[in-house]
Each structure stands twice: as C-alpha cells, then as structure tokens.
Specification:
This protein is an all-alpha fold. The chain has seven helices and no strands.
Length: 116
C-alpha cells in the first residue's frame, strides 16, 4: 500500500511540474517531453489526463510518430467509454501500424559509405 501512495504522489508531482512549467506551451513542447508525460498518466491510470494532453497536442496539429502513444491514447479512450474517439485516433494514425520495422537505424551517410 505504501508504494502505491508513493507512486501516486510521484505522478501528481510530475503533473504539477508539467502544468506549471511545460503544459501551457503545447505548441512548442518537444515530443520527447510529451511522450513520458502521457506514459506517466497511463501507467498511473489517469486516463482523463492522457486524453486531455493528447487532445491539446492535436489542437496544435501536433502528431505523434510513436504507435505506443497512439495505443495508450486509444486504450484511455476505451477505458473512458469513448469508443468512437478511440476509433478516430486509430484511423488517423493507422499508417504507423502499417510500417515495416527498420532492420537497422543507419544514417544515410553511413549507407552511402558502405556502397562505395
């Protein structure tokens, strides 16, 4: 029980930092900061905040390229009983799920050198 209280406190502390320092500028906050915040909310079963953050980012036409985030947002909508919203998000980002995984993440420069 004690660890659960600690976990919830950490999520709330992260939320307070987000709201006070970062969340007001959703048009310019890097995705590298948005992804972990969505994950914190999701992991702590705060689905309303997952949805609110994601909708805020979408309002600025910010789109994730991470299918894990799309899945979490879809799950959050489902938990909240918003199945149509879940379907909308999955449809909007379906191209992320159709991509084939890259075998390696080599830069173009590295690939060009290896062909010489």
């Amino acid at each position: 029980m004690h660890s659960e209280v600690q976990k919830n406190h950490r999520a709330e502390a992260a939320h307070e930092v987000w709201v006070k320092k970062l969340g007001a500028d959703l048009h310019s906050v890097p995705w590298q900061l948005c992804h972990p915040m969505i994950a914190v909310y999701y992991r702590n079963n705060i689905m309303e905040r997952v949805v609110k953050l994601f909708k805020g980012l979408e309002a600025f036409d910010r789109k994730t390229r991470d299918k894990k985030i799309v899945k979490k947002v879809g799950d959050a909508y489902e938990v909240l009983g918003l199945i149509e919203e879940k379907e909308r998000v999955l449809e909007k980002y379906k191209s992320l799920f159709n991509k084939t995984p890259q075998s390696s993440k080599k830069s173009t420069r590295t690939l060009l050198k290896s062909t010489k």
